[in-house]
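Supplementary Methods S3. Input chains for the assembly prediction are listed below.
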Amino acid sequence: GQNIDQPTEMTATEGAIVQINCTYQTSGFNGLFWYQQHAGEAPTFLSYNVLDGLEEKGRFSSFLSRSKGYSYLLLKELQMKDSASYLCAVLAGGSYIPTFGRGTSLIVHP
Amino acid sequence: KAGVTQTPRYLIKTRGQQVTLSCSPISGHRSVSWYQQTPGQGLQFLFEYFSETQRNKGNFPGRFSGRQFSNSRSEMNVSTLELGDSALYLCASSLGGSPGQGTHEQYFGPGTRLTVT
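Predicted structure tokens for the full assembly:
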């Protein structure tokens, strides 16, 4: 099976930087996704990492270390609209389907 | 390109009834996955269809079933509804290639909010 851990909740200040961590234990690894989900809405794709390193996309960056079973999502210049749940999902074991973590609820305050 | 659509958006049913939910994937996407999302359990995978065949299945009872049509549209059916089935049901589509090809980026529909009373 797979085990994916993320913090349940984080708070940060508008304009700041926040790092949301995700650790996983899995047999086989075919990639890791980050999704953003606003309350009452569907998850939206943010990033996909399959190789070690940092992928930058505007204010959002995602990092992966396969040897450590670790990823993080970095959000810079936080805005109030970034308040949402951030889901880490791992594609592993030859499966076509990602397994989702419980998500991290990020609250951005003024 | 139109996104994933789901109908209906909201549904209220009583215990014992059955329900059918519909999902239309992004044009060209052959894989459709269904998830149940509740505050306590997060996103739980139900099943995935690819080219009209169920390719993957999660750990849900047989009351939950689905199918996919030749145009990749998919339906999910829940029979003998229970109070615990109240949840947001999300459908996601992807190109559905082999693992590691990077074609598993999933695009989610808005979901169907099912309330069982």
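The mean pLDDT of chain A is 92. Chain A touches chain B through 23 residues (CB under 8 Å).
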